[in-house]
Design goal:
312 residues, alpha+beta, Muramoyl-pentapeptide Carboxypeptidase, domain 2, four-stranded mixed sheet, 12 strands, 10% strand, Penicillin-insensitive murein endopeptidase, Zn_M74/Hedgehog-like
Length: 312
């Protein structure tokens, strides 16, 4: 088992390592953050492999920081209490901050903020972007490839969680990325969630599809090609999240129209050019909202169960 784990760690590290350039620490760290809580032993072994292969200490530092960037601080603290790799991450950060020779580096890289602050957009590697450019060329519906659509929303963070994450991992799509946008859009979502958290810490936003890398065609639906289009569940009367939190505006026992209105007001205050598609007629037909909230035409029900936000 240990031998298999070592081999898996070696394969994973190699997959994120260029022929001449060494590991792509951002993509490697982002990948490791996605399995950190469920497979901490794999993360631990990858970090060991970085040391065993003799890469410069900066590679280990950057990979560690990339993991911390992509994890919510609460997740890091949970890992620190329960896993070896969590303790390693916290110890590494502590060592960086306490070592005089690394003090400037720590300040320049904002290492402490990476540990304790909100998550940041995760930039996908050029290898991943090239993969999706090829996938676009092979698709039944070829669209204009947008290289700026390369920033992934972290899995969770202050004020929000994600749902249906990377559920396009099927067929020829080996990655399944579908919560990727422009940097500005992902930063806007993170800011919006942080502002929402101030008022409603027990009602996290639930964010769904954004775009695929490059804005390529999404077979599940149209209208998500610019990296500026974000799906979000209507607000609930309870704090339920995950698969069991699905609802439509017709689910009056669960759906909270007042909180949903409040969220739209906040989104418009932070982003005055934002428009919304949502089918609740009590909102789309309200004089306060009708200029920028519209429902599906022809009695369509696509946006019964989520708000579609178009960021400017």
């Amino acid at each position: 088992m240990a031998r298999d784990l070592t081999a898996e760690a070696q394969t994973l590290l190699s997959a994120h390592t260029g022929f001449l350039s060494g590991p792509d620490t951002r993509s490697l760290g982002a990948h490791l953050s996605q399995v950190a809580l469920t497979r901490p032993e794999l993360v631990y072994n990858v970090l060991l492999q970085i040391e065993f292969r003799g890469y410069p200490g900066q590679v280990l530092l950057d990979t560690t920081r990339a993991i911390a960037d992509a994890l919510h601080p609460a997740q890091l603290l949970q890992m620190a209490r329960t896993t070896r790799v969590g303790k390693i991450l916290l110890v590494r950060m502590s060592q960086i901050l306490k070592t005089p020779s690394l003090a400037d580096l720590a300040r320049n890289c904002k290492v402490w903020e990476a540990l304790t602050g909100p998550p940041a957009p995760v930039e996908l590697s050029q290898e991943v972007m090239d993969f999706y450019a090829r996938l676009n060329g092979q698709a039944a519906r070829v669209v204009t490839f947008r290289p700026e659509v390369r920033w992934e929303l972290p899995r969770s963070g202050p004020g929000y969680e994600t749902y249906n994450r990377n559920d396009l991992k099927r067929g020829t799509d080996a990655y399944g990325y579908d919560q990727v946008g422009t940097r500005g859009t992902v930063e806007a979502v993170l800011r919006l969630a942080r502002e929402w958290l101030r008022a409603h810490p027990d009602r996290p936003l639930q964010v769904g599809d954004i775009s695929r890398p490059g804005g390529i065609d999404t077979p599940d639906h149209l209208g998500h090609e610019a990296g500026k289009n974000v799906d979000l569940r209507p607000l609930r009367k309870d704090s339920l999240t995950g698969d069991g939190a699905r609802l439509t505006y017709r689910d009056r026992d669960a759906y909270d129209p007042d909180l949903t209105r409040e969220f739209i007001r906040l989104a418009r205050r932070l982003h005055p050019g934002l428009s919304v598609r949502f089918n609740d007629p009590a909102i789309s037909g309200d004089a306060e909202f009708k200029a920028f909230v519209r429902k599906d035409g022809g009695g369509g029900k696509v946006h019964d169960n989520h708000l579609h936000l178009d960021f400017p």
